[in-house]
Amino acid sequence: MDTLDKLGEIYSEALIDVIATTSSIKLKVGCRDSNNNFDEITGVMYLHGKKNGMLFITAKEPDIRILCANMIGAQPADVTKEEIDDTMCELVNMTAGRAKLQLNDTDYMFSLLQPFVIEGKEVSIVTKTITKVEAGTLTNDEVSVSFKVVY
Q1: Residue 82, Cβ neighbours under 10 Å: how many?
Q2: What is the mean pLDDT of the chain?
Q3: Helix-then-strand count for the chain, H and E
Q4: CATH code for the domain defined by 3-150
């Protein structure tokens, strides 16, 4: 199996680890589906390297609110919009950083760039010349977070 076939696994394991480390919430892969939609809040990072790509992490606002509350030691109702946005950027940044460690000696090595957040329920993101899409949903009884990485 080459690196391209393992990208979904690399990113899902990185995101599971980041969420467990930062919020003590344990998620597992609920499904691997490259056709999953974007939710209300999406963190994004452009992956610049020999093979360019993009990482998307997306979730509904209540799920990110729970993750954020666990990360900062607050009650979900007390979490601000700025803290939710910061949480999404941190999840993208840390997930990309962990995946980068495994991809440094491959054609998929990339530079970490500034993450950003897209908000809205009817978001459609179209990219050109994508050869591979890996995506999945991580879940438990309380929280659901999806990711999509495109190269």
Answers
A1: 8
A2: 89
A3: 3, 7
A4: 3.40.1550.10
The DSSP output letter for 38 is P
Angle CA 67–70–75, to nearest 5: 100
- Closest to 84 in 3D by CA, of 119, 38, 46: 119
Other CB atoms within a 10 A radius of the CB of residue 67 amount to 26
CA–chain centroid gap for 89, Å, is: 9
- Cα 83–84–85 angle (5° rounding)? 90
Query: What is the C-alpha separation between 70 and 75, in angstroms, rounded?
Result: 8
Encoded tokens for 86:
């910061």
Q: Alpha-carbon distance 35 to 42, whole Å?
A: 15
Check: CB of residue 34 under 8 Å from CB of residue 132.
no
- 2 has which bridge partners? none
Would you place residue 97 in the very low, low, confident or very high pLDDT band (cuts 50, 70, 90)? very high
Q: How many residues does the chain have?
A: 151
**pTM of the full structure:** 0.89
- The residue extents of the domains of the chain are 3-150
